[in-house]
Amino acid sequence: MPTLFLIVFVDLVGFGLVIPLLPFYAVRFAASPQEVTALVAVYSLMQLLTAPFWGRLSDRLGRRPVLLASLAASALAYLWLGSATALWTLFAARGLAGACAGNIAAAQAYIADITKPEERARGMGLIGAAFGLGFMIGPALGGFLAGTDPVNADLETPAWVAGGLSSLALLGVVLLLPESLPAERRDGAPSGGRFSAMVGALHRPILSRLILVNFLVLLAVAGMQSVFAIWAMPQFGWGPGQVGYVFAYVGLVSVILQGGLIGRLARRFGEERLLLCGLALTATGLLALPFAYRLPVLAPALTALALGMGLTQPSLNSLISRQAGQEEQGKVMGVSQSAGSLARVLGPIAAGFCFAAFGRNSPYFLGAVLLAVTLLLALRLPRLAPARLAKAGPFGREGGPAR
Q1: Where in the chain are the domains?
Q2: Which of 72, 74, 300, 368 could, after both became Cys, cross-link 287 (CB 3.0–4.6 A)?
Q3: What is this structure's pTM?
Q4: Mean pLDDT for the stretch of residues 64-89
Q5: Which CATH code is given to the segment(s) 2-176+192-389?
């Protein structure tokens, strides 16, 4: 568990390190605003295309080889980013980093291998806590390393630090992480490509609905995150410092919840109830943001968002994992991650369009509507016993083996 936590944490710190620097890359390489936006999206786009491949490979070869390969490639991608001399090399390096981000799906499958169904939410919560820490520390560290001069910012050091952290995580896998998938279970991994994995998931009503819920949640939240800074400037007159503090606060709340409380809450209330509560809190936070003209209103709205996502994401990941058979954990988590990556590509695009066409508050209203629809979908999910969930076969019916 600690090594896995480090792997996901390093991945998200590395991702967060370069996010504040993208506008400065625009200055250095004379990129247009559209090119800067594309530079943000190319990571998620490549992750979308490759996540099922990494998940399927982890079902066939084991989790450890996939973690080793993806971390090694990620380290090279960050080093390439740090030594970029032209705009196309930036796109290539970011694309390579996204294509090699299979360690998240492999880490989720590893958690599923080593936890019982009733303990899975706690394991997924640790991954969620690593996400929160990464997004809290990464941008702040990247800004600190780059310096305060917008023209002569140090864009190389943050990327090299990210590469060094990935190399450190790679060493941790080599020295500390045993394989979690026995050889006999690898032989039974279902064959077929990414398309067959997606089609198989869509033919399972509960699993497909859970993946759709995950997609809609991330679509709304990714849109909110992408426009928050340009929304806060006219709303509060804020600069990068205040926006950074807000994201640090949201990450801190998420870490506390997912790292220490989610397991006990799941045992007491169940993942289904936590999911419903998380969706309601997230929708409430999004709906309250347009009316936040002062900190006393903004703080509760952001807290609701942080608590909502802290409850929603590990509960969803646990429920999705429990709908998969033991021999297909990597494939199913890879399909789910692909849906999430697609949401992270489409969410900012939709939010940016609404921002320009309908005003700065419209992305939050759109997000609240999406979350309301998602809550209705989640309310129709049946409440299944853990023992039944654990028996879901390879692309068979939920609650039973394939037929």
Answers
A1: 2-176+192-389
A2: 368
A3: 0.67
A4: 88
A5: 1.20.1250.20
